[in-house]
Amino acid sequence: MAEQVIVCKELTKRFGDFYAVNKISFEVNKGEIFGFLGANGAGKTTAMRILCGLSHPSSGEAQVAGYDVYQQAESIKKNIGYMSQKFSLYENLTVAENIEFFGGVYRVPAAEIRERSDALLQKLGLTGEAKKLVGALPLGWKQKLAFSVAIFHRPRIVFLDEPTGGVDPVTRRQFWDMIYEAAASGITVFVTTHYMDEAEYCDRVTIMVDGKVEALDAPSRLKAQFNANNMDDVFYQLARGAKRSGD
């Protein structure tokens, strides 16, 4: 059986009478690209914050990398990488300074930071830009650099929150090539997005509607189940069904 690196059971986050996350349950396997899909406000980011150890759930259970979200949040943080939907590097530092800084934050041994940094710059084609301020880079390069820094310490899991927002289609495709490479190396990728076409790039997807998991399966099986041509059609049917059941 595949190793499960994320396990959620009836996970709930409530703010007063509002349920941002409502009894969601799922497992994520090691090395899997797991899509967490839904419209804005569906509860994706709230759930991700819980799994990253940044917020406590109201009820339910969850383990990430073998650690409990209630009692072992700091251990979770040491075993994950994270890239937010907004650009997450320091624009007033150079490319090299950002890499060095986050290498230190992630406690990569000093002797390894230089070696890994040189390899990363060469891989991204940024060796000649190492001393350039990050704020001067095009958005697509910023996003690819941010992802590379998020996995610089070789975490077990990387959480990506709307990572391709605002970039052009070609850059989005290149970004996903980087995700495939990370997954092939054994890093589990947990990615939230509201771009339904990106579901096609995932091994499995969960579709969130109003804080609930309405579907979970491989994209091909979901399309077959809902007799849909694409994931947009699947999401539309699920959202419409959820709205009707709430009327």
From TrEMBL:
Classification via Pfam families: ABC_tran
Domain ABC transporter positions: 6-235
InterPro entries linked: AAA+_ATPase, ABC_transporter-like_ATP-bd, P-loop_NTPase
PROSITE patterns membership: ABC_TRANSPORTER_2
CDD domains named in the record: ABC_DR_subfamily_A
Domain of life per record: Bacteria
Keywords: ATP-binding, Nucleotide-binding
The protein's name: ABC-2 type transport system ATP-binding protein
Source organism: Chitinophaga polysaccharea
Lineage, highest ranks first: Bacteria, Pseudomonadati, Bacteroidota, Chitinophagia, Chitinophagales
